[in-house]
Write a structure and sequence with these properties.
globular, homodimer, 286 residues, 17% strand, Rossmann fold
């Protein structure tokens, strides 16, 4: 699908031609692991006739505790894998990779690149009436300051309160979705945001929708919780509605494919929990 | 230092000659991240005149939740890196890699390969009077069954009770060494072992010595806690006492070097906590 691959100092660039529709054309989605499957599920629901390919980098998960340089390298390799498999657009379904690497990927690759941050930011601004917005995410996401920057670029008077929640990903991956310790840890993480009286809370990590039922009562029912997985799926749906050629290329009879760079029992069980059905995960080395 | 490198189907083999002493000759230690620094510290204390080189695979940490195949690949690459830098023997300072990959590495590399499991097993058998021995570790270590197998090979009447504790590594890496949630999670993990009345508990993960002060009161003061970091350092010291040529090769004026495949603030701070001094970590790509 790439007609030109140029290893210039600016990095490889893939250029798309208006080539004939192929049964390989797909929506490409990647994440550091299985959390991004909440995005894939939302895309499956929003666009049931479109084909998607997913890549979860389980061999190197998690990204959230790694350095910006390493995260950018990994995101580039993930994107290259999906493009080589036939992706015509990319969704970065990992807040960490989105916050650190999305600008760089947009410079390097000539395909539409969506990510989970911008749609959630737009929704948060539209939702908040007090302008007091909370964000929870991994340490890398929070340290990047990307949510604050994007929110304040559009709503300069907004006050953004960010809280890194590094233990939530391991808790979700353990399946401790209803354990007392998980509730206590959530209460500890959410306490500062509650004190700041945020009226909107962005779930800035694709694992967190699995904890939404625990988060909502602990942040308070008057606080609106924004799920970035759903927002990015809606955003993609709107985009395709205005890009009929690409839209029709992505509609065909192939099946959705889920790739991972490592295959573990835990991953299979989280995938099943997210989709509500057993998932066939294909192992690849990238 | 390797005079022959043979990419036969059995894997690469490094053969050591009795070549002249070099200032590069070192004790090589690797771990998936920073936990293995508890081993490096114990080796520094046991063998202060010997030089060591450490590699922490922070770019791909943790290993404990990954598949045996991926863990073996990573362990092989870590070993190759250390040998290329001048290691004359290897300590696998990661229980996960030791449990999954040590036999394979011994087949592939012609250098002495130590690991954290065997010395801890020997000590546990020597210590236990009831023969009821507990083991805590990552999910991969516990699933491998290696502790049970090794203990029962030497003490067939022993009863081994193993408990995976997958949240302890993230808790240590967060520095939550004295938080209420950490204590609750530890109590939950240790409860079955307490019920089984183990009289000896092996810390089967190199992160866990950092939690020893919390573990001892929760498992009970009559249970002896075995720290594999200290045991492997003693084992190496005994080995070198009977191998004077290698021993003298490793004693020279060079300085100990600490390499990591990713550099993060959190890693620096855990390293400082383990060694009680600021540590210079060198980033390498392997």
């Amino acid at each position: 699908m790439a007609d030109k691959k140029n290893d210039a100092s600016s990095g490889r660039r893939y250029r798309l031609l208006a080539n004939p529709t192929s049964d390989n054309d797909m929506i490409g989605i990647f994440d550091s692991g299985v959390g991004g499957m909440t995005v894939a599920k939302a895309v499956e629901q929003a666009l049931p006739d479109h084909r998607l390919i997913y890549f979860g980098d389980l061999a190197r998960t998690p990204y959230g505790s790694k350095s910006p340089e390493t995260i950018t390298d990994y995101a580039r390799q993930d994107t290259e894998f999906l493009l080589a498999k036939g992706a015509r657009l990319i969704i970065i379904a990992c807040n960490t990779a989105a916050s650190i690497a999305s600008e760089q990927l947009r410079r390097e690759f000539d395909v539409p690149i969506f990510e989970v941050i911008t749609p959630a930011v737009d929704k948060a601004i539209a939702t908040s009436s007090s302008g007091r917005i909370g964000v929870i995410g991994t340490r890398a996401t929070v340290n990047s300051g990307v949510y604050e920057e994007k929110i304040r670029a559009q709503a300069s008077e907004a006050k953004v309160f960010s809280q890194p929640c590094p233990l939530l990903v391991p808790l979700v991956e353990e399946g401790w979705l209803d354990k007392r310790e998980t509730k206590m840890i959530l209460r500890r993480y959410l306490a500062p945001l509650k004190r700041h009286q945020v009226d909107t809370l962005v779930l800035g990590c694709t694992h967190y929708p699995l904890l939404k039922e625990l988060i909502q009562p602990r942040i308070g029912k008057r606080t609106k919780v924004i799920d970035s997985s759903r927002e990015v799926a809606d955003c993609l749906k709107n985009y395709l509605a205005t890009h009929p050629e690409l839209d029709s290329q992505l509609r065909h009879g192939g099946s959705n494919r889920y790739y991972v760079s490592d295959l573990t029992e835990a991953a299979g069980s989280i995938a099943r929990r997210i989709f509500g059905r057993p998932m066939e995960l294909h192992k690849v080395t990238i």
